[in-house]
Amino acid sequence: MENSSIIKIEKLVKRFPVGKTEFTALNDISVSFGAGEFAGLVGPSGSGKTTLLNIMGSLDSPSEGDVDVLGRSVSSLSHKQSAKLRNHHIGFIFQTYNLLPVYTVYENVEFALLLQKLSGSERKKAVMDSLEWVGLTDKVKSRPSMLSGGECQRVAIARSMVKRPEIVLADEPTANLDSKNSHNILQTMKNLNRELKTTFIFATHDEKVMQYLNRIIFLEDGKIVKDNLINDSKN
Amino acid sequence: MTQKTKIMLALKLAFKNLMGAGLRTWLNVSVLSFAFVIIIFYNGMIDGWNRQSRRDTQEWETGKGQFWHPEYDRYDAYTIKDAHAPMSEEIQAEVKKKNLAPVLITQATAFPQGRMQEVIIKGVDPEQTVLKLPTVTLVPSGDIDYAIIGKRMAESCKLNVGDRLLIRWRDKNGTFDAREIQIASIFKCDVPTVDKGQIYLSLDVLQKMMGMSNEVTMLVAGNGFINKDLKNWDFKDSAFLLADLDKIIQAKKAGGSIMEGLLLIIALIAIFDTQVLSIFRRQKEIGTYIALGMTRPQVVGIFTVEGGAHSILATLLGAVYGIPLFLLLGKVGISMKAAQMTDMAIAETIYPFYSLRLIIITIFLVVISATIVSYLPARKISKMKPTDALKGKLQ
Ligand SMILES: Nc1ncnc2c1ncn2[C@@H]1O[C@H](COP(=O)(O)OP(=O)(O)OP(=O)(O)O)[C@@H](O)[C@H]1O
Ligand SMILES: [Mg+2]
């Protein structure tokens, strides 16, 4: 397990300045994730799930401790290096989808690739492949405003997957979806996790998500209180 | 990704966002295009005026330059008395070839309808072709001396063709003399200094009246004159002779640029405001760009290009209504009747002149200034924390 861990966190502390004092959002977190995991951070509101996810995505930096993502220590990365890490290796999925409203489905997915050096045809193939994974090839020309919430989130999944990242970080991806759509996108992600060996890490308090996870890490007040491996996860 | 594709990407995104913003974009673009069109219109008008006035002044008064008697100063009437000298044979030869137009100048008093008026009398060779003055009508016939005057002079003295006018002058020796002259023709010229208070006689006639045989005050060079020095005559080039006109044009341009500047500033404030608002409202989008792997300078670039792209749309919109307007005005001209009452050299109708240079400079000015005001608020992005931006909770 040690060898294949793609995220390694040791003694992570995250404090936020609040007025003149500081608030400790994450306290002494040590955890690792291996390639191909389908894991979830679970805990009450304010327990630090999003904060931990953001640090793993190099959107935020640790106050103390080491966070190693794909062999890079995130606290030592320059802005440019962490942008590159995100662009090539980490996909994000948000509760509110965060699609660009002026772009079509196709362009939204393509956007993530435009920052990379790819030929037009390579790019097109990658975009169409990932739209196929989420079953949206018939909506390439639609704009986000014309799509349902579930469809929007599928576009977001395609966008996060189009660059074939090692890691996808999903913060409450089902919170705005009904049960049917939630299961639908979870199944999609589970399939991608199996086929492409992409590591998925969720932040959630949605029971539906938990059914799919093969590892649940419970957070409370910025601390890991339980770390359960689940073998008989739902297909 | 190459620099070029980056810019193309930013531009594409910019236009999509601008179109998405709808009415707000079009309001900004309209104001900016209006500033744009006004700047070109006003400067085109001044340039047209400048060109026409220069051409008129050269055709009617200054030619390709003038050779002055060293004593002569056009602003000091007292110099006229001593500013005359005989023409050398070399000069006479050039006059014969119509390369130089000799002019003798003197002060005199005219008595139109019993009133008294100070005038400048210019003796001009009736056969000259250097200046547009209809001097052929000065060719003598009978025993009356012919004169030509301009329309403004004719109006102020209430004179018509065929009318007679009494003039009184001092000759070379300071002795007063008087005689009646007859108006042979009245010309229409937009250059006031050629017209107001000026009476043109045949050079021979004036030389005899003054007792200054073969003498002149200045020589106006024509197109055929090959630039060379004439001994004892000071050459004044067009830059010198048109300096007054240049000054007026400069002043008009400066005056106009205040108005243009204000218009542009209003348009730029609108863009600035839009930028501030859009960066505030689109924090989540900014956070998303960063999550997708853009650096913050790249996001600043996207927003700067987006704001700056207002200017491109403004150029296009300005072209849509500006080009027909400019073409029309270039054809029918702009009436300047009111301004003709002044002492400025201005035609009854100005035909605006839109140079490529003017258009390029204006586009450049509008694009650069719109980009700068778009960049200023966008800089704020580089200080944003991506996590805060994603939450959209920045103030
Ligand atoms: N930028 C910040 N400044 C100050 N405090 C912060 C900041 N970001 C997060 N916090 C605090 O850190 C704690 C953890 O926040 P976080 O967003 O990680 O919680 P969460 O587990 O994701 O909660 P939720 O389930 O509501 O999304 C919260 O108490 C929050 O108020
Ligand atoms: Mg959260």
Summarize this structure briefly.
Chain A is built from 7 helices and 10 strands. Chain A has 235 residues and is of the alpha/beta class.
Cα Rg of chain B: 32 Å
Uncertain residue ranges of chain B: none
In this structure, how is the largest beta sheet of chain A organized? 6 strands, mixed
Overall tally of structural domains of chain A:
1
Helical segment count of chain B = 12
Estimated share of beta-strand residues of chain A: 25-35%
What structural category characterises the helix and strand content of chain A?
A: alpha/beta
Assembly form of the protein: heterodimer
Q: Which geometry of chain A do the CA atoms define?
A: globular
The overall strand count of chain B is 13
- State the helicity of chain A in percent bands: 25-40%
Number of helices of chain A: 7
Structural class of chain B: alpha+beta
SSE series of chain B: HHEEHEEEHEEHEHEEEHHHHEEHH
- Count of discrete structural domains of chain B: 2
Task: Sketch the major β-sheet of chain B.
Answer: 6 strands, mixed, barrel
Q: What would the principal axes of the Cα set say about the shape of chain B?
A: elongated
CATH superfamily of chain A: P-loop containing nucleotide triphosphate hydrolases
Kindly describe this structure.
The complex is a heterodimer of chains A (235) and B (395). Chain A has a single domain (36-62, 77-229), classed as P-loop containing nucleotide triphosphate hydrolases (Rossmann fold), CATH 3.40.50.300. In chain A, 34% of the residues lie in helices and 29% in strands. Chain A has helices at 49-56, 79-89, 105-114, 120-133, 149-161, 179-196, 207-212; strands at residues 5-18, 21-34, 38-42, 64-69, 72-73, 90-93, 167-171, 199-204, 215-220, 223-229. In chain A, the strands form 2 sheets. A 6-stranded mixed β-sheet of chain A has the order 6-7-8-3-9-10, with helices on both faces. A 4-stranded antiparallel β-sheet of chain A has the order 2-1-4-5, covered by helices on one side. In chain A, strand 9 and strand 10 form a beta hairpin. Chain A is globular. The two termini of chain A are 23 Å apart. In chain B, strands 3-4-8-5-7-6 form a 6-stranded mixed barrel. Chain B folds into 2 domains: 3-58 and 244-391, no CATH class; 66-236, no CATH class. Chain B is built from 12 helices and 13 strands. Chain B has 395 residues and is an alpha+beta fold. Chain A binds chain B through residues 54, 57, 59-60, 79-80, 83-88, 92, 94, 96, 98, 100-103, 111-112, 114-117, 159, and chain B through 1, 5, 9, 13, 16-17, 19-20, 284-285, 287-288, 290-296, 298, 385-387, 390. The complex binds adenosine-5'-triphosphate (ATP) and magnesium ion. Magnesium ion is lined by residues 49-50, 171, 203 of chain A. The site of magnesium ion has 4 residues of chain A, from helix 1.
